[in-house]
Amino acid sequence: MKSVEAVIRLNWPATGEKWELPILHEDSRLLAVSKPAGLLTSPNRYDLEKPNLMGLLHKEIERAAPWAVQRGLTYLANAHRLDYETSGVIVLARDKAALINLANQFGTPNPEKVSVGLIQGVPEEDTFEVDLRLAPDIREPQLMRWSREGKPALTRFKVLKRFRGVTLVECRSVTSRNHQVRVHLKSTGYPLFGDDDYGEGKRLYLSSFKRAYRLKPGAVERPLTPSLALHAWRLVMAHPDGTGPLDITAPWPDDLDIAIKYLRRYAG
After folding, report:
1. Are 59 and 113 members of one domain?
2. What is the tens place of the pLDDT at every residue in 229-267?
3. Which of 40, 89, 214, 251 has the largest count of CB atoms under 10 Å?
């Protein structure tokens, strides 16, 4: 299918929030977009008034938005999700049969789910993995913790680049548990920057690694990682039609790109 519009624009009138979702892949059965950080994938049971990707898309289809009409879209459903704070690849089914196929795939380790992130500290190993069962936190059910009674969860990590006190890592999620990468990194002692729930909210600032850093009088330094420094970069999966594997990637967000640029220049 020839792309009609490369971006889907969504807005939430109640708060004035706006989002742009680049279209990463589309055909007669699937639509893949890049979800921005700060947007739920689906409704949050703890805050039903909070905007979410699926709710916004469904409203756009109902009101016959041009991008939906141009594609003949009457149905969209997600078989997987990303955390509110995480940006990256989301694949949506355009019919129920495709949804069932995706749901079956995401119930197995077969889809290759690759994220990239900036972590606090510098691991000695080039590769490592965390195999810890995860369960909802009894005190805060919206968060997760490792537990013997939890569901199996396995993440494999690879160091992509070491900087002074900061590391760029690749994260391969063999299973698909809520907050899996974030909890597993916390368990290693190397939490993600910008993680308010599992990393004590620590942000990465240019002043922390650039020598002779100077800030203009009266100015306030902004963090290089204003949100969670985790991006769902790549997803490799089988197409529901059985026509071969799909390899979908989402461009890294600007704040992550800029942070890495400065780290390479001043903290290599």
Report:
1. no
2. 999 999 999 999 988 899 999 999 999 999 999 999 999
3. 89
Per-residue burial over 117-144, b = 16 or more CB atoms within 10 Å of its CB, e = otherwise:
bbbbeebeeeeeebebbbbeeeeeeeeb
Rounded to the nearest integer, the mean pLDDT of the chain is: 93
Return the structure tokens found at 209: 């690694």
C-alpha span between 120 and 126 (Å, rounded): 15
Neighbours of 207 (CB within 10 A): 11
Q: Are 1 and 60 in contact (CB under 8 A)?
A: no
Predicted model pTM: 0.93
CB 259 within 8 A of CB 224: yes
DSSP state letters, 176-210:
--TTHHHHHHHHHT-PBTT-TTTSTTPPP-GGGTS
Question: Among 55, 78, 107, where does a domain finish?
Answer: 107
Looking at the structure of the chain, the number of domains it has is 2
